[in-house]
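Continuing from yesterday's entry. The apo prediction looked reasonable, so today I'm repeating it with zinc ion included to see how the binding region is handled. Same sequence as before; SMILES copied from the compound registry.
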Amino acid sequence: MYKEIERTALMLKTSRNTVVVTGAGISTEAGIPDFRGENGIYRRLGEDKVMEIINKDCFNSNPDHFYLFYRQNFQSYAEIQPSHAHFALAELEERGLVKAIVTQNIDGLHQKAGSRRVYSIHGSADRYYCTNRSCQQGYDQEYVDSYPLTVPCCETCDAILKPDVVLFGEPIKNYYDAVHAISGAHLLVVIGSSLTVYPLAGFVRDYCNSNQDLIIINKGRTEMDYAATLKVDTNRTGDFLNQVLDRL
Ligand SMILES: [Zn+2]
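Holo prediction written out below.
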């Protein structure tokens, strides 16, 4: 692993614009099961069922059904602390060595660790907003947890609240910022993603066509291993990044 640590440190030092892409793998180190992993919701309940309910049509037509399922199966991330890997990325940004993070995760752990420029393309599970367009008031998890009914409503206008996450059938959030950040990078570091979920996998694929450096840190193979300048096969990303930080 020593050689990989040295090379990563060197590439970070010499890159003028480094962007990081993160997937579920970075948050499993904080104790959050990967939706697609062994104890993940897709395995337990079946992907079809999840897609049917965590869907914008279901939310619009049957919010009771949606919220009953959502409340039972999507945990609150309020008590979960960022992993060493999240903190290491915040430190890299602080030192000017990482310009932005594009994440598929909805747990808010990058922000909690102190990262500032984070594009969460699937939204954030700890935020809610009022669906009345002329109101759109924001709410936190605490408000929703303590709401006396299954479907939480706005205290100002009484319209239904929607979790600030991208449901099936909805476009991703921060699309232009994410594409712009990735396509403008001179070094892209992918952490904890097998790069099978689109559109993010497509953004990374497009980036690779420009022949810029790509580092992939992931346990197991990914769809873009063939294009990586450096592949680090580990599920101890936090340790790895901390050792990289020691050499910067
Ligand atoms: Zn409202």
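Comparison notes:
- The first strand starts at residue 18 and ends at 22.
- The mean pLDDT is 93.
Will overlay with the apo model tomorrow.
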